[in-house]
Each structure stands twice: as C-alpha cells, then as structure tokens.
C-alpha cells in the first residue's frame, strides 16, 4: 500500500432467493483470506500508518442481538472474533461511522476492493461496488486505489498452512471418489452419484461442495458446466465426474472419467490414454518461470500431435489451421489450468511467470462430438522451487487402477 493509506474490505451481500428466503451466506473471499471471519455484515480496515496503533487493524462486526439470535443463532463475541482473526480491535458496525470519519481524514489514499476475476460477467451491483460508490461520493477528494490488484498477488502464493487445509479438502474428495468407484454401474442415475458425493463430503466434515458437481455420463460430458445431473448412466458409456469438497474455506477440484460398466472399450482406452498423456505432459512443464499463456500453447502443440495420432485431426487440417483458433481446439475447447484456492477459479495472473507457492489445476480434456464422448482428467498441483507437487497423486488415474478398483 502507498504511504498514509487505508484499505477497507466489506462482506458480501446476503442474497435474496424469493420471499423472505436467502441463499446460504458466502463470505467475500478477500475478507475471509484477511481475517478468517465467515459472518455476514463484517468489515476489515487496515491503516498501517495510523498514529494510533490500536486502529491499524480493525475488525468490524454486527453487534450481537438477543432477539435475532433466537432465530438465526449466535453471532461472534469479541473474544471469539479476536481468536479467529488475530485482530485485537473489534468495533461494532452500528458505531463505526464515528470512528471511520477521523481515520479517513488522516489518510490520503483509500484502497477499496472489487471483483477482478477476468471471467466475471455478473451485472448485479454487489456490496463492494455499492461501497465504492458510497465512499467516492462521501469523500470525493481522496485518491482511490484498487485493493484487488494487491490481493490477487497475495492470495495467489499459498503458504504451507493453506496447502495443508487444501490437502484435507483433497483427501475428503479422494475418499469420495474411491467410494464412487464401488457405486457406479449401468442403470444408476447421475443424481444418485451426486447424492453419494454429498453424503460422503458432509460426513467427513466438509462444508459442502466447492462448486456444483458435474456428473456427466455419455455425450453430456462434452458440456463443460453440465449440472443437470439427471440422466441414466448406460452400459458402454463413460462418465465424467468433476467435483471437489470445500473444507476450511478451501476448494478441491477433481475430475475423473470412468467406464460406467467398469471396463473401457478399446477406443475409450485409446482416447483416455491420450488425455492422460496430455495431463502428464502438462504437469511436467508447469514450473516457475513459465506463463499460463505459454504453457497453454505448449500443451496445445502436444494435443495437436496426440489428436493426429488418434485420428481426430488430419495433417492438412493442422497445416492450414487458423493461428487464432487452432485445429486442436475443436476437441479441447477450454484452458488447461487455473489458480485454485479459496475460490475454485482463484484470482491470479495468466500473463506473468508463475511462482513457487501457487496452486493450479491441470485439466486437459478431449471432447468428440462424432463419438458422443468426453474425457477430462484433473488434478491439483502446488508449484515448488523447481517443479510441482501433485496434491492428488494418490487418487487413482490409470486405466488399470480404475478397472481394478471397479471390479472390486
Ligand atoms: N470445476 C470447474 C473446473 O474444473 O474448472
Ligand atoms: Mn473441475
Ligand atoms: Mn478446474
């Protein structure tokens, strides 16, 4: 942060469904990363140069209200909030105004947060944006800065403690996948598999799914964000399952594709092994120094060779390809990796060289309309000084492992 500046982070909104119902509350990821606080209507205020040390870090919480607590349950008390956040100054939201005004007058620059995910397309005016409007209109002569660009860099590099929590989310996901291998058979419905996932996650103390599980048998596997999960899994088809537990606020993101009847056909095995080859190739080059853009190009090159080999592309299609829309993209039409953390598509750079400590997915896929088939294999990796550590290395992945576990 610049000298004499203050940063203010606000909670997410409680989002209405219909009538008096609201969606389960989800904390703003930056506020959670800074404080560990999951309660609604909270704020974090950071003012490192404040002459009064007491007000260099402030956590703002809603004042517990006995009547409201009869309906909605206990809210944090001061001692609990201090223990969770490590912040020593707790202020109730209803008395914030009188405190904030003099702090703002001491500061030259105000950092406010916004959602800088490149794929954000929502037009809903969320609380962080409304707060920016409010502050700019109340204090028009201050300088304003983007907190998100700082948070993006801070959150992208994970500490060992964060990875330990993520590993727990991954282990829960692994146990769940092993359970599914015994459950899947012809005739089972996709939503029955989803129900197994929920049961397994919650009974292992996960907070829930990290994102809506994609349980896609047969041709539905070509739909990248298929979440209807309402078809019957048929003999002879493959089933693609993209799911992950959320634990301690961190998201696992696994994809495995298995034969519904427990045995790959020859063709399925050929395409699967081609995808596995791409997965292993991608893993071998995901190291500090490379950018996600260059890495994606390299994996695209390898995919081109693979797709020639398994008869998806012809040489002249590759020779005459449009460099802006390469031939391989007909069968692999998404990115290979994204940052992973508190958000499943975590914030982070795609254009700057990657650094040790970052966590990425590796998730090549092959989607063939002519054969009504979709395969994706996705693991989660922690970037080390010289390479990476596969946090999902124990989760069965080869044809032989999967067939042998499904036979049992
Ligand atoms: N589950 C979403 C993804 O793999 O990116
Ligand atoms: Mn996924
Ligand atoms: Mn992913």
Task: Sum up the structure in keywords.
2 domains, Creatine Amidinohydrolase, Creatine Amidinohydrolase, Chain A, domain 1, binds glycine, globular, 12 helices, 3-stranded antiparallel sheet, binds manganese (II) ion
Task: State the gist of this model.
The protein has helices at 29-35, 66-72, 78-85, 96-106, 127-138, 147-156, 160-183, 190-203, 266-285, 292-309, 315-319, 399-407, and strands at residues 5-10, 43-46, 57-61, 89-92, 109-112, 143-146, 208-209, 214-217, 238-243, 245-247, 250-251, 254-259, 359-362, 365-368, 373-376, 379-383, 388-390. By secondary structure, it is an alpha+beta fold. It has two domains: 5-155, Creatinase/prolidase N-terminal domain (Creatine Amidinohydrolase, Chain A, domain 1, 3-Layer(aba) Sandwich), CATH 3.40.350; 160-407, Creatine Amidinohydrolase, CATH 3.90.230.
Give an account of the 3D structure.
With 408 residues, the chain is α+β, with helices and mostly antiparallel strands. It has 2 domains: 151 residues, 3-Layer(aba) Sandwich (Creatine Amidinohydrolase, Chain A, domain 1); 248 residues, Creatinase/methionine aminopeptidase superfamily (Creatine Amidinohydrolase). It is built from 12 helices and 17 strands. The strands form 5 sheets. Strands 4-3-2-1-5-6 form a 6-stranded mixed sheet, sandwiched between helices. Strands 7-10-11 form a 3-stranded antiparallel sheet. α7 crosses α8 and α9 runs antiparallel to α10. It is globular and about 70 Å long. The N and C termini lie far apart (57 Å). The model has no long low-confidence stretch (mean pLDDT 97). The structure holds glycine and manganese (II) ion (2 copies).
């Amino acid at each position: 942060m610049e000298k004499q500046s203050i940063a203010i982070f606000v909670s997410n909104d409680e989002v209405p469904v219909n009538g008096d119902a609201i969606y389960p509350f989800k904390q703003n990821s930056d506020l959670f990363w800074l404080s560990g606080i999951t309660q609604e209507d909270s704020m974090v205020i950071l003012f490192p140069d404040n002459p009064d040390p007491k007000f260099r870090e402030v956590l703002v919480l809603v004042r517990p209200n006995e009547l409201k607590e009869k309906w909605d349950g206990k809210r944090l008390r001061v001692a609990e909030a201090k223990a969770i956040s490590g912040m020593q100054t707790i202020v109730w939201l209803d008395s914030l105004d009188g405190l904030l005004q003099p702090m703002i007058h001491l500061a030259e620059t105000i950092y406010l947060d916004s959602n800088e995910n490149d794929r954000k397309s929502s037009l809903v005016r969320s609380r962080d944006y409304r707060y920016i409007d409010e502050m700019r209109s109340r204090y028009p002569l201050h300088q304003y800065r983007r907190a998100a660009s700082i948070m993006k860099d801070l959150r992208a590099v994970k500490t060992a403690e964060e990875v330990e929590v993520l590993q727990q989310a991954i282990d829960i996901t692994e146990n769940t996948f092993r359970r599914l291998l015994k459950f899947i058979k012809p005739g089972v419905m996709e939503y029955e598999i989803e129900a197994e996932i929920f049961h397994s996650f919650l009974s292992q103390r996960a907070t829930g799914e990290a994102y809506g599980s994609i349980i896609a048998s047969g041709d539905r596997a070509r739909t990248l964000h298929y979440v209807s999960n309402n078809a019957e899994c048929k003999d002879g088809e493959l089933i693609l399952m993209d799911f992950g537990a959320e634990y301690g606020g961190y998201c696992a993101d696994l994809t495995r594709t298995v034969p519904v009847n427990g045995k790959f056909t020859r063709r399925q095995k050929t395409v699967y092994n081609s995808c596995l080859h791409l997965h292993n190739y991608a893993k071998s080059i995901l190291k500090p120094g490379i950018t996600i853009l260059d890495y994606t190009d390299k994996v695209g090159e390898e995919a081109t060779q693979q797709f020639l080999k398994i008869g998806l592309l012809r040489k002249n299609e590759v020779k005459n390809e449009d460099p802006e829309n390469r031939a391989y993209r007909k069968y692999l039409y998404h990115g290979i990796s994204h940052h992973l953390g508190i958000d499943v598509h975590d914030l982070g750079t795609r254009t700057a060289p990657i650094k040790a400590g970052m966590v990425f997915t590796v998730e090549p896929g092959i989607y063939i309309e002519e054969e009504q088939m979709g395969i994706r294999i996705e693991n989660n990796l922690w970037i080390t000084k010289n390479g990476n550590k596969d946090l999902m290395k124990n989760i069965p992945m080869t044809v032989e492992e999967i067939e042998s576990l499904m036979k049992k």
